[in-house]
Amino acid sequence: MAFFSLFFILSLYLSAQTAPVLKLRFYQGERTITHEPLTIVTSSYLSPLVSASIPSSIDPEEERKQIRRVFNLLDVRLLTEAELAWTTFARPRETLTHVIRFDSREIFLAISPSMIMTEQIVSSPNQFSITVAEQMDQEKIELLNTEIIIPSKNAAILGFEGRDGTPYFLALHLLTTPGKKGPSTGGVMGGAIGPVRAVGAIKPPRLIKKINPVYPEAAKAAGVEGIVILEVETDEQGNVVRTALLRSVPLLDQAAIDAVKQWKYEPAIIDGKPTGIIFTVTVSFRLNR
Fold it and tell me: How far apart are CA 28 and CA 31, in angstroms?
């Protein structure tokens, strides 16, 4: 009876809560400046909330400068960003996963809200469990496993090293967007099978043919750098059939789109069949100095 009462009270409490939404930014630190001017990052699609029209609580350029200063690095560059949305608070231990691919690396993120169940139901709406792992051959090497409290008005910054000692940083912002729905996993609607979003256990496809973007002369002349984030849809053969802007840099957008449309991916295989898939691609433009 006591357990039933606790469960009932917990259910009522959670039903009144709004699902948390996190803005996630993934940075790479540079102890020596050796990066290429252009970097391509492909990551799993988290939710349809990412949009250039959604203001960030902290400007990414200012955040990048803060990380560089605090951790005494020569440079820090933003590799990708996304928003992580829970569908409901009714399952407080629901774990959402995210895969980031760049160069020959795969970084796996797993994030879940923390909830302590006692007779008084101690809730920590700003506290999350975070695990970061890197794929090495056939095994995952854990790089970070921690609990973190994300301040309501500030970002929480987590730093860790890759297997080669390269420093990486996760910046997490807790957003207040009640009423938002979480990510769709695609599937069957109206009897037609549509593209599947790369979310959770569904990884984004591997890039097998890449055309580097051409840095626009107007952007060079104006000294414009930045990242363009695209939502990309591929068909059953791995061809890019649709792109949509999620983060815009006006002088760089078209160069990123023109290049990505020429890319070729391995066909995504789900339940033994090739299928279309939706994921995000981040194209970073950096000027040689």
Answer: 10
Least confident residue range of 15-24, 117-126, 183-192: 183-192
Neighbours of 29 (CB within 10 A): 19
> Alpha-carbon torsion 128, 282, 133, 161, what sign?
negative
| CA dist., res. 202 & res. 150, Å (int) | 27
Q: Over the stretch 133-177, which tens digit does the pLDDT of each residue have?
A: 888 777 888 888 888 888 777 788 888 888 778 888 888 888 764
The pLDDT tens digits of the residues spanning 35-47 come to 455 556 666 644 3
Here the contacts of 109-114 (C-beta below 8 Å, separation 24 or greater) are 109/24, 109/170, 111/22, 111/84, 113/20, 113/86, 113/89, 114/147
Q: Where are the alpha helices (DSSP H) in the chain?
A: 2-15, 60-70, 217-222, 253-260
Residue 151 DSSP symbol:
P
Which domains occur in the chain, in start order? 18-36+56-175 (no CATH), 188-285 (3.30.2420.10)
Q: What is the DSSP letter of 253?
A: H
The one-letter code for the residue type at 142 is E
For 236, residues 6+ apart whose C-beta sits below 8 A from its C-beta are: 267, 274, 275, 276
In whole angstroms, what is the distance from residue 278 CA to residue 204 CA? 8
Contacts of 6 (CB under 8 A, 6+ apart): 117, 119, 121
Average pLDDT, the chain: 74
Residue type, 5: S
| pLDDT for 185 beyond 50 | no
Please count the residues of the chain: 289
Q: Sign of torsion, CA 270 274 275 278? A: positive
In this structure, what token pair is assigned to residue 156?
């929480």
